[in-house]
Amino acid sequence: MNGSSRSAFEAELWQLGYGAHDSFDYHPCTHQATDGCAIFVMPTQESREAETYGELGWLVYEGCHACCVATTHVLLCGGLFTHLRVFVGGVLTESFGAAEIRPATEPIDDGEEEEDPEDEDDEG
To answer: Which pTM value belongs to this model?
Structure first.
């Protein structure tokens, strides 16, 4: 991600083909804070079945600084995210997970390569 602002981040997601963000409803903040804290998280295939990165999509949690910090700690402990970006006052303050965000239409690389039956050694 080139931009360190929330608006630049959202613009880049839009350019990469991601649609509207879903709300991350874990323990909603009820403090009605206006300090501009937000967490953008892309789940993993373990938590959301998907074949492309766009199908995983992005979830957004917004709340006061204390609630965002608490939610970030929960997400870090759970580890079920591909990307995690924390913005405070519209500025990127923390980034976890893969550095490069892939285009939404790109198939998810699960790290396993399919074996070609013709490549197997014949024994005997």
So the answer is: 0.81
